[in-house]
Amino acid sequence: MWRDNDREFFAEIMPLVKSEIEDIQYEAIDLATERNNPVISGAEFEGNYS
User: Fold this and answer.
1) How far does Cα 7 stand from its chain's mean position?
2) 50 falls within a domain
3) Is 39 domain-assigned?
4) Which residues contact 9 (CB under 8 A, 6 or more apart)?
5) Which of 7, 20, 25, 39 lies in the 20 to 30 Å Cα band around 31?
6) Domain count, the chain
7) pLDDT 10s digit of each residue in the chain, 50 long?
8) pTM recorded for the entire structure
9) Is residue 36 included in any domain, yes or no?
């Protein structure tokens, strides 16, 4: 569906994703675990896992 501006898009999409956004906002994050994760290399970011 074609929209003339971003406001129309957000008016349509927000009712569909509102509960998902709320769930993400209250998701618990274990910062200690996150700090121990290795840095992702540029190659790995591009999808080269070898």
Assistant:
1) 21
2) no
3) yes
4) 3
5) 20
6) 1
7) 566 788 888 888 889 898 888 888 887 888 888 888 888 889 998 998 87
8) 0.37
9) yes
